[in-house]
Design goal:
422 residues, UDP-n-acetylglucosamine1-carboxyvinyl-transferase, Chain, 4-stranded mixed beta sheet, 14 helices, binds uridine-diphosphate-2(N-acetylglucosaminyl) butyric acid
Length: 422
């Protein structure tokens, strides 16, 4: 198991390219199951989650070639049973369910287990697929979906108690592309990753409108074909490096970003007293660290609100920002594991009922800390950049799930980091 040692105190300078989005790549890779023709997908980040998805597709019978960010997949003859030992490693594997059901009329996918960031049920996915005519059974830890006479369009409201569901919207949208008739998804997730998937499906021949809004309409077609697609930039990786630059940077530039997708994150960083300057095209930005910084109040919300996936990293920034910050996670109220570790580094944080109250301290000091999930580990790396001394972050595999070569990118910016084997 790898560890990351961060020697705090270096100033970050220079520029890096942001990778393709992990959370757009995962459903797009799964969507290739909808056609027997070859699909070519570019800018797929080399992270363990995309590797798991490729392994699942290969186990289902897909022919996959991958080289430097480009993945070529042909799903000519596929099975309808997703293997448990692969599915259990990544919750997002649930998004093979919709495409398998649509293509094969049957899908067997393991029920995802618990997750450190919260309960994460799949009831909304199943409710949506059921509305399209699938029979849903749970047997021996597996979800068995059958649609002997094919799927048919329906009106579905996907709103849950915590708002819309991203992968649930993806699953229903993918299944509806090959259903008979028109499907209307109300209370759909409007995240840019959902829109990227819809663009990919439309290029394959699907008829989807309204993606990126709360109401998506899908007119079923009889078949889809192979396409080439370039994945959108990863807004969470970009946000993470924006926070790193605000903590320890001096004019860091991030290339291959989308200003539009980064609005809520940019506002939060600017509200805390830093400045983010985009070029005219909005695809590159420079983060100017402010001298007069202040605490902010943040509430996570579905897009275009402030993303839960940037909650931990912002908490790390606010831990050393003067004043009091109040951070509420409405989407995953239990997602505060990073706070206990940040406190071990000297942060003053109180967590209660899905809300963290952070009193900015003058500085943090190094301590051995443990990564608990992807974004929590990113928060620890950010905190360590300015902490006094050398912080050892263990269980680095969490960060490798979703950040492409994070240690190399940090080294390029001048951080003093080392990846070591345990
Ligand atoms: N929910 C239900 N029932 C469901 C599905 C979701 O109650 O059937 C609840 C969840 O428990 C949560 C809320 O609805 O409270 C939103 O969850 P959502 O379904 O949108 O999450 P997801 O689609 O499983 C994706 C991202 C997550 C990100 C969330 C929220 C991918 C692969 N994952 O998960 O990303 O936090 O949306 O934006 O796209 C990450 O990258 O670190 C990550 C965890």
């Amino acid at each position: 198991m790898d560890k990351l040692i961060v020697h705090g105190g270096a100033t970050l300078r220079g520029s890096i390219n942001i990778s393709g989005s992990k959370n757009a790549s995962l459903p797009i890779l799964a969507a290739t199951l909808l056609t027997g023709e070859p699909c070519i997908i570019r800018r797929v980040p080399d992270v363990s989650d995309t590797n798991y998805m490729i392994q699942i597709l290969s186990a289902l019978g897909a022919d996959v070639e991958r080289s430097s960010g480009t993945v070529r997949i042909t799903c000519e003859e596929i099975s309808d049973v997703a293997p448990y030992d692969l599915v259990r490693r990544m919750r997002a594997s649930i998004c093979v369910m919709g495409p398998l059901l649509a293509r094969k009329g049957r899908a067997v996918v393991s029920l995802p287990g618990g997750c450190v960031i919260g309960d994460r049920p799949v009831d909304l996915h199943l409710r949506g697929l059921e509305a399209l005519g699938a029979k849903v059974e749970v047997e021996g830890g597996n979800i068995l979906l059958t649609a002997k006479n094919g799927l048919r369009g329906a009106e579905i409201d996907l709103r849950g108690t915590h708002g819309p569901t991203v992968l649930g919207t993806d699953n229903v949208m993918m299944a509806a592309t090959l259903a008979d008739g028109i499907t209307i998804i109300e209370s759909a997730a409007a995240e840019p990753e959902v829109l990227d998937l819809a663009n990919f499906l439309n290029a394959m021949g699907a008829k989807i409108s309204g993606a990126g809004t709360r109401r998506i309409v899908v007119e079923g077609v009889s078949e889809l074909h192979g396409v080439e697609h370039t994945v959108i930039p990863d807004r969470i990786e970009a946000g993470t490096f924006m926070a790193a630059a605000a903590i320890a940077g001096d004019g860091v530039r991030l290339n291959r970003v989308s200003r539009e997708h980064l609005k809520a994150i940019t506002s939060a960083i600017e509200e805390s007293g830093h400045r983010v300057e985009f070029n005219e095209a909005g695809d590159s930005c420079v983060i100017h660290r402010g001298d007069q910084t202040r605490g902010v109040d943040l509430v996570t919300a579905p897009y275009p609100g402030y993303p839960t996936d940037m909650q931990a990293q912002m908490t790390a920034l606010l831990a050393t920002t003067p004043g009091i910050s109040v951070i509420k996670d409405t989407i995953f109220p239990q997602r505060f594991m990073h706070c206990a570790e940040l406190k071990r580094m000297g942060a003053d944080i109180k967590v209660d009922a899905g809300t963290a109250v952070v009193r900015g301290v003058a500085g943090l000091s190094a301590a051995p800390v443990m990564a608990s999930d992807l974004r929590a580990s990113a928060a620890l790396v950010l905190a360590a950049l300015k902490a006094k001394g050398s912080t050892e972050i263990s269980r680095l595999y969490h960060i490798d799930r979703g950040y492409e070569h994070i240690d190399e990118k940090l080294l390029m910016l001048g951080a003093n980091v080392e990846r070591v084997k345990d």
